[in-house]
Every structure is written in C-alpha cells, then in structure tokens.
# Entry
Amino acid sequence: MIPLVIDTDTAADDCFALLVGLLHPRADLKAITMVAGNVGFEQQVHNALLTLGLAGRLGDVPVHLGAQRPLVREWRSASEVHGDGVGGLRRLDDAHAPSPEHAVDALIRLAEEHAGELTVVAIGPLTNLALAVRKEPRFAALVKELVIMGGSINGRGNITPAAEYNIYVDPEAADIVLGAGFPNVTIVSWDPLTLRDAVFTAEHIDRIRDLDTTLSRFFVRANQATFDFDVRVGINGSTHPDSLSVLLAIDRSYALEERRYRMSVETRGELTRGATVFDWRSDEPNVTAIERIDAERFFESMLGLLAQEAAPGYGELLAG
Ligand code: BDR
Ligand code: CA
# Structure
C-alpha cells in the first residue's frame, strides 16, 4: 500500500483523481488537502466531500483546508473550463465537515509520521506545498516522492500561450517548491504528455457512459463542461492530467519514457508569467518528467475504477 496525500483544487478531473486515490487497491489515501485554484474555495471543498461520499469514504479520509489564495498574486479561477466542477450536483450528506487541522500542518505531520514513505500528489497550484516548505525546513527531505501536475516541457500553455494553469496561478510557490530539495519530483506536463496521452475522446466517454454505474454517470456529468471547453479550443476530447498523476504515483509502470531535467519557473515575465523552462542539458536536474505513458492502459484503468459501485444513496442523485 502506498501512503498518499492529494493536494487538490477539486473540480472535474481533480474529482476523478480523488476517485483513483480512494478506490485503487494499492492506494492508502491519508488525507486530501485543499488549495485555491480551479473554482471558488467553498465549491472545491463541496466537490471533494461529494466525491468522498460517492466513494463511501466520508469520515474515513479527512479533508484539510489550506491556502485560499496564492502567495503573492491575485487568484485566477478556471471556472470557464470546469463550470462548478461537478455538473451542478449537490452532495447528500452535509453532516461531515472538513478537519480543523490546516492543510499545511497536516502535510507536515503526515510527512513526519511516514518519514521517507509518503507520496504527495499536487494537482493544483503549489501554494500549500510552498508554505509547508517554509514552515518546516525538513518537510521536503521527509517526502518520498512529490508528483506535480504542472507546466509544459518547453511547450504550449493553456491559461496563456506560455503557461499551464497550476504553475501560472502561483508561480512564486512553484519556484519555492522546485528549489526546496525534494529528493524525487515527478512531473506530469500539460504539453506534451497530457495533450497526447491523457485525452478522452467522445468514443472513450461513450464507453464510460455504457458502464451505466453511478460513478460512470458522475464522471460523464462532472466532465461535461471540461469536455465542451477542451473541444472548443481544439483538443480532441477532455483532458485528464490529474487522474493520470495519481495513477502514476500509485503505479509507475504506466510510464513508458522518462527524462531528467532542471525545471525552472518564470516569475518575472510579462507575457511568460508561470512559463516553465526544462533544461535537458543540466548537470543538476531537479525533476523527472514523464515523457510518454501507455494511454490505452490508463483509460482502461479509469474504466475499471468507474465500473465499481458507488456508496448507497447516490444512485438516485445521479438517476436519469
Ligand atoms: C490543470 O489545471 C486545472 O484546471 C486542472 O485541474 C489541472 O490540474 C491543468 O492545467
Ligand atoms: Ca487540478
């Protein structure tokens, strides 16, 4: 079992990434930590609790609230991409509240409790991770592996032509994290990895719909806004980098090619804020980028997870 924390700005693909962490037989999800990103903070917390409810894990995996805005910059949402992130669904059980422990304290505590064993998967802006690094200087060294969904390998962005969203929102945090000395940092990039290997086409979505489970209905509904947005901007389906990041953290055999780089973030550029530079020539690499995955196997594994039954009570919420 792999002890895991997922740091997330929960909407759409973040919800499915949480399902991977909650339902994969090798994942031991210790906590979900929330960071400002995709949609309003309260909506993100609602989405995480809804996902936990669907997976039947409410009260079992704690949700910790973290940074509600980036370190320096104004927050920028991605609600034009994801809508509210769950297709307008409202959670059934509002008795369960987030943990009173702050996300940064939970990250540090779990890294100490599982020193050298904990994997952290960061699928939102890196604000909480940067704060943990600043609060506890030993934090980075205690984490076994940090998987970051962020950046493009000298390629195109999504929120701007130059920058990928997670890095763009808090470039100063990304800069701190990349310089913190984490022993193993794995990067799941937007370009080329997500755009080539983590796109679910209309045919893929039909296969998910045909599963006809509560979880598959949730996926199709929560994914619709992202699917429509991605197709509008010329992608051949919806993008799933966050789900892929969690899966790779649990099972690295999905990666077919990897390469070491020195990754840096532009914090000063006007047109290039949050752009990532991957130096392939460096003698001091600080990340390993996944360059290619088995895309079909990734989709099949998502299909397998979504074929499982959801917790009782959610069928009605998603009926029709
Ligand atoms: C990333 O930005 C967010 O909108 C997605 O959840 C993903 O983590 C892709 O750039
Ligand atoms: Ca995300």
